[in-house]
Amino acid sequence: MTNLLIRSVAIFFVIAFTYLSLLFSAGVGDNINIIQLMFFFFLGVLSQLGLFLSTYAFKNTLLKFFIVVIMLPFFMLLLESTFFDASFLSRLTGSSVQIASSIAHIIGFSVYMYSFYRVVKSQYNKPIKQDK
């Protein structure tokens, strides 16, 4: 069940990244086409690849380290936009769009923290071998 939640949050952020990138592209005067849509979708998947990979159990420590490293940029963005943003509390009491955005940031931040914990926890909770 938690894997489904984590993957659904990752899919939400991929869709949000793609949508906002297309809006920005249209805002600067570019015509939106299927190539831009595929490119921005690919970038969105790359930005959430660590979150997708954190739902699988890997035994390789280097691979786990790589997963944590590729999760860090988006996690830092969520951290900055929630706890280190001076206007975060005013956005929680603003319009419904601002409230929904703030809730998405909080849920995303929580899911990232839980995913970090799962990746690191599985590394240190290995069974102890006992000699017989």
How are the elements arranged and paired?
Layout: H1 2-27, H2 34-47, H3 49-53, H4 61-82, H5 88-92, H6 96-124
Helix pairs in contact: 1-2, 1-6, 4-6
**Helix/strand order:** HHHHHH
Main beta sheet strand tally, sense and closure? none
Please bin the fraction of helical residues: over 70%
- Spatial extent as radius of gyration: 18 Å
Entry keywords:
single chain, 132 residues, mainly alpha, 77% helix, 0% strand
Overview of the molecule:
The protein has 132 residues and is mainly alpha-helical. It is built from 6 helices and no strands. It has helices at 2-27, 34-47, 49-53, 61-82, 88-92, 96-124. Helix 1 crosses helix 2 (34-47). The protein is globular, with a radius of gyration of 18 Å. The termini are far apart.
